[in-house]
């Protein structure tokens, strides 16, 4: 806590890394230090310089910022323009040409009525005056429950925003709920106001929307309902007569009544509530907890939210988050750089492009005669781009290379679309509502012709056209990045084998630029996690301009005593075969059978739960099928119930519950059945390896099979490796000496191993770190508190190898210190058996 408090007090721009294994009190330390600093900072501001935006220590630092009289909230506020005269000029609706006052009869009359029915799909007139494009409306809340328009109608004024704030973010909703649980244990849970943000899927209480299932469909339907206004007539008395005036309200019944939103805010502000609690309160009151929670951000002292809500720029703007002078705490930051870049990736498939092109052409054919010049020009441009994207996916001239990579400029020049102003096109898509207009008309045509599309129902499900158009918009925005910040991956279909959907994908490489948008505004940023080392890679990718001495780093050992963990590097199986699970030998039937014999012995010694991690779903399936065929699974089942991690994340919770129930039931009746627990076959990088805690009997032993190196043939990975190698060479050699010459300047793909061999340090180090970070995350699932105990078996002879050459390091060098210091390398299976037997016998006596 002293370290964190000191880091926050060190002034604007502070950056600190806190490495603290699970069970060591990391969350409580973060809560107490950050929130106490917030309270002290505000108290000092009131006593010191109440007129300054950054009252005490921060303002006194003399950074030169804030010398003007304008306060932060005014300087950062972007007012909404009274009229959008510069970009979109409202004109008489184009349908006026359709409804000319001439009398129509017969077929002509029928055609006129059909056009009138399509009025809702017509775009408003759009004109762009040169390059003068209106800025996006930052902070505008579009929902009906609390937007600026509603407030003006009701005569309400926005509550003053509380600054500075503390923003806490983590990867999953369950981790955020754990944080709230710890917050409730402190006085800050009652003393400070909190806002907890979640996804629509987790907070929506509209049953009609929830039944859509997927997050994308729920988001689309929610936004669609807000655009759908329910018109009611109210009586207004004036001039001694009653007049009926129309009043519009949101189409979603959960956010129509402003009074219920106020009641929700009042109820929630009384205590610290997590996402599940918010949803429960919303159901009880009958109002939307998603937008209710968003409305509380302005007055909150502490904002708890998932990664994308704060790290994605568009999400920050949509939510109206102001990071100026605030504290940003990012938990589970071990893969932060990759998480940042993946948020800015975009992918569009050939089937989506075909659907978009069909919808664009149908819309243009229907409304071309009544569309204004601006709309017609932009829709034609979208059609040209979509057709060009499709063409590059269908043309495979050499017939061999199905995957290519190129820079943004190379992609634009190769399609001959470099003369198109994509900036203005993206602005048009954002402002004109074209996505919903064209998608709405497409859905209408599909509903009219439902008989003919029954075989393609999945492709044309409700909302799929909106999702496809949004995907295109995301891909177009990706083309606005700088040329060196990412790569375009072109994946064409293969001529033989299974048919696969071709796709275009933008892969973001530069995480430094994304992260700087957060650090430049925030007073301080804290990166926390159980395993953050090696920090050099984190520094290189997120803040390369900082020297290592400028980064505050604190690490603590685990609180569990040495006798509570048993990490063993297992080099040989029961028959003496050397374990080698490298890619070239891991599929050997003899290797798989030796692993099965090893596991059969382990389950006889280890009580309760055993979790075994494999490198991939494919390899897990290969091993499991071989064990079923050889009868190994039936032998294992005599000691442990066997469960497998499903690919579908929806089914993970069900499997985990069954796994837990099996362990609990066996602890009561193991003498009768001989079954002592359960075995769970899991996958590195899956749901189970990242966010699930296997405390106590859930994970008495974790088995890691092999070293889970990612495939070097993965195109995105090779591009990332080349980018990081270039960064590291720029740092060590100098920015003027580029390492790009080591690769093809045209970004032609090379075999992954060739690229790794050309790497000096940074790229190879990143590749090794990917593997060992995954190992550390997986084996760290077992020890969750001070009284817990577990064995960790690293099954591969490479774990016992020392560095064979200067260009690579020993894998165990990258293990957390609390594991590495207690690691034992067993030369034969007999040593493993003896150590396991002694370990569990000792811990059984101690408990």
UniProtKB/TrEMBL annotation:
Keywords: ATP-binding, Helicase, Hydrolase, Iron, Iron-sulfur, Isomerase, Metal-binding, Nucleotide-binding, Nucleus. GO terms for cellular component: nucleus. Its cofactor is [4Fe-4S] cluster. Residues 1-383 form the Helicase ATP-binding domain. Residues 48-161 are annotated as: Disordered. Residues 114-131, 151-161 have a biased composition (Acidic residues). It comes from the Eukaryota. The keyword ATP-binding applies. Its main location: nucleus. GO terms for molecular function: ATP binding; DNA binding; DNA helicase activity; hydrolase activity, acting on acid anhydrides, in phosphorus-containing anhydrides; iron-sulfur cluster binding; metal ion binding. CDD domains: SF2_C_XPD. NCBIfam families: rad3. Belongs to the DEAD box helicase family. DEAH subfamily. DDX11/CHL1 sub-subfamily. This is Helicase ATP-binding domain-containing protein. It comes from Zizania palustris (Northern wild rice).
